[in-house]
Structure formats: C-alpha cells, structure tokens
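Q: What would this chain look like folded?
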Amino acid sequence: MVKIRLRRMGATNRPFYRLVVSDSRKVATGAALEEVGFYDPRSNPAKVEFDRARIDYWLARGAQLSPTVKRLVASRPASA
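A: My prediction, written as structure tokens:
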C-alpha cells in the first residue's frame, strides 16, 4: 500500500519533516515515490506547505494518509 507520511529530516533537536509518498512496507527513511510538501514545527507559527493537487492525485490512486498528515492537511490551506 502507498502512504503519504512524514519523513524526519534535520539535525538533533532541530526537526524538520517532509511529506512524502512511499510504499508502506519500506522504512520511513527509504526511497520515496514523490515529495509533496514539508512541515517545520520549529517556526512560530509552525509552517506547513504542500501541493494539494499531487496529494489528491495520489489519494485517487489509493494512497492512504498517515494520521498526522491527515491532521496537517485538514487544518491548513493548500499552497501550490
């Protein structure tokens, strides 16, 4: 199954996340099919940017959102 989930990036104690489309059987840090956005929790307010069209594309093809990504997408307006 394909999932849209967060991949942790950044240094120790300085997290930065990318929203990636990847196979759920692979590790979260493994190769991704596509990067569709990012989430920076350290900025004030937290910064979330993603490509709504690409997320909709993957959802139409059966991808599932992780619970955290589902909350982020639902709570933020999309930015192209």
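The first strand starts at residue 2 and ends at 11.
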